[in-house]
Structure formats: structure tokens, C-alpha cells
Amino acid sequence: MLELAGKLALVTGGASGIGAGVIVALQAQGLRVASLDLQPGGPADVRVACDVADEQSVVAATADAVGQLGGLHYAFCNAGVAGMGSILTMPMAEYDRVMNINLRGVVLTLREAAKAIRDSGQGGAIVCTASSAGIMADIGMVHYSLAKMGVRQLVRVAARELAVHGIRVNAVAPGPTVTPMLDGAAEMTGYFEHLAAITPLGRLGTVEDIVDAVLALFALKWVTGQTLAADGGVTVCSSTDVPGIDAEALASW
């Protein structure tokens, strides 16, 4: 495991949810942390406003944050938005909104963070937020799923390109997790209960669950180009599973 104390980190989407949780955990490990967020706030030592979908904003905000920190060793490219829509009816403006933030934004922030880590000369690690939706084929969220699948491939290519600079690149893929992003689903009666029921470990994920996975990816010095599904087992489920029928029952047929 790596010694993180005294290192410098950058988190996008750090004002709330998983991003804020990662910041608090990194600070507890002795890191100084900067946050880039559209509405800067939260627990970071340095907070800079940034629209991750806008190239000039990302370039300027990253330079500002890294300048205030005095360098960079770790980055968590996490900023993202939820999005629902049918292939048949979704306006392209909605498609562009989600793709620009959830994929273009990760490409831009990874690029600028990688430059800063390279220039610091000590190597480091980058973790990006993917999703179980980028692994499974969930209906009603084609643009979100495409963006998150793109993040998975991004970290594979980036891991190869950045290895020469001693930079590891991985992704965490949360399953359904209790964060502000899921608040909109509260109006759907029984939805949370359904998500818990189809999760092998029997509950929704928490911010702390995802934080643990992110810190592990920062610390695992021989792991790069990988996506870690932190999802309670959702992505190992099969469409042929029958509710209420377990392996022993099937074996008796």
C-alpha cells in the first residue's frame, strides 16, 4: 500500500456526494485536496469553480487549483450528472448534455490532471467514475450508459499512454448508490426497494462504500487500466435469474 500522507489531490464534483466523501477520506489520510465543481463548496482545502464540459474552464481551473496546492499526485475525475431517456424520443440536446459532462468532462479533467501529475515528477494515480450502467444494458438511459462505457475504455487507453510517466489510471463503477444524484427517483414508489432486492448483497450502496473503492485504487500500485465494480454484485447478475429461486432449488430440478 502507498503512503498517502503529504500528497496532493484534485477531485472534480467535490462539493457533495461521492466526491465530497473522497475528499474527507483523503484529508484523513493526510492529503491536501482541491475540488473543482460548478458550484464550489464542500470540505476541500482549495475550491475552484469549473464547468467540466468546457475546455477553457477545465484548463484554467486545474491550473488555479494545482497552483494553490503546489503540485499534484492524485486525481479523482468524478463530476457527472444523471440522465434518463428513450432511444426513440430523447432530444439530442439531452444526449449532448449528458455526454458532454459525463464523458467529455472526464477526458478533459483527466488530461489536465495528468499533465500536472507528470510535471510534479513523482508519478501518481488517477481514478475516474464509471458506473454499473456502463457494464450492463439498462433501459431508459442510453446516453448515460454510453458515457460511462466510454469512461471504462478511456482509462484503459490512458493507462497505457501515461504509464511512462509513472501514472496509473483506473475507474470505479458504482452500482445504485444513495447520493443526491438518486434523489429524483424517490418519487417512484418501491424503486429503492426494487434496487436493493436485485442486488446480491441486499442493499443500496453508500458513499462510504464507493470511497473505500476509490482509496483502494489510489493505493494499489500494481493495478492500472482496470474498472472496479463497487456495486454489491449487481453486474454479476443474470437476466435468467428468477426471484425467490436460489441455487439449491435449481439444483434439485
TrEMBL record:
What Gene3D superfamilies would the database entry show?
NAD(P)-binding Rossmann-like Domain
According to UniProt, the name of this protein is Unannotated protein
Q: Which family does it belong to?
A: Belongs to the short-chain dehydrogenases/reductases (SDR) family.
Alphabetically list the UniProt keywords.
Oxidoreductase
Q: From the Swiss-Prot or TrEMBL record, what is one GO molecular function term?
A: oxidoreductase activity
User: Organism classification, top ranks?
Assistant: unclassified sequences, metagenomes, ecological metagenomes
The answer to whether keyword Cell membrane applies is no
Q: Which InterPro entries match?
A: NAD(P)-bd_dom_sf (IPR036291), SDR_fam (IPR002347)
Q: Does the keyword Cell membrane apply?
A: no
